Amino acid sequence: MSAPPDREDILAMLASLHGRPAQDVPELIESMELAWLVHQVEQRYGVRMELDSGQYGRMTTVSGAADVLREVIGMPDEHFRD
Q1: What predicted TM-score, i.e. pTM, was given to this entire model?
Q2: Which superkingdom (predicted)?
């Protein structure tokens, strides 16, 4: 499995959602952006993630999303679904 997305990867994915430069992406992630980010990660990494409400709650910032994705993608299969 590839290394999980880092902060720069997440900024680039969020920037592409609205067609703006990565440096213009705010730290806070809105719910629609979060759903889109999870979908992008699933597509790029070829996984289907199973996140719990606590993990989603921690993904309200770019830094939090990077932390959760690093944990989940680096963990065994319990966070993935078929």
Answers
A1: 0.83
A2: Bacteria
